[in-house]
Amino acid sequence: QVHVVESGGGLVQAGGSLRLSCAASENIFTLNLMGWYRQVPGNQREWVAHIRSSGSTSYADFAKGRFTISRDNAKNTVYLQMNSLKPEDTAVYYCSADDGTADYWGQGTQVTVSS
């Protein structure tokens, strides 16, 4: 079982930046994929970005050009750099890890963007 813990959320003004971190309990280069999702209360969880074991990345349309997913294998950590934040980016952001047999989720970190 993989454990992941998110951090780095907070309150930021529109146009600002935040970097989220996701620390995994296992070597992330052995995982198929790690991703970021977000959820607003009352809405479904929404995919933001993911990074595969190969290092390839994919982004939701709203994240392209503003968000960057990256990883540090030595620290078993995946990051989500978020720039040019908008009030509509306000949500709880979750990290997920796919080891090929199951998806594992963290508790989430709150991101609030004020206008």
The fraction of residues assigned to DSSP E strands is over 45%
Task: Tell me how many strands there are.
Answer: 11
Structural category is: mainly beta
Tell me the major beta sheet.
7 strands, mixed
Low-confidence stretches: none
Oligomer: single chain
Mean pLDDT: 96
Give the termini separation: 40 Å
Instruction: Note the total helix count.
Output: 0
Helix content: under 10%
The coarse silhouette is globular
Give an account of the 3D structure:
The protein is mostly beta strands and 115 residues long. The chain contains no helices and eleven strands. The strands form two sheets. Strands 2, 4, 5, 6, 9, 10 and 11 form a seven-stranded mixed beta sheet that branches. Strands 1-3-8-7 form a four-stranded antiparallel beta sheet, with no helix packed on it.
Kindly summarize this structure in a few lines:
With 115 residues, the chain is mostly beta strands. The protein has no helices and eleven strands.
Give keywords.
mainly beta; 0% helix; 53% strand; four-stranded antiparallel beta sheet; seven-stranded mixed beta sheet; single chain; 115 residues
Topology summary:
Elements: E1 4-7, E2 10-13, E3 18-24, E4 33-39, E5 46-52, E6 57-59, E7 67-72, E8 77-82, E9 91-98, E10 103-105, E11 109-114
Parallel strand pairs: 2-11
Antiparallel strand pairs: 1-3, 3-8, 4-5, 4-9, 5-6, 7-8, 9-10, 9-11
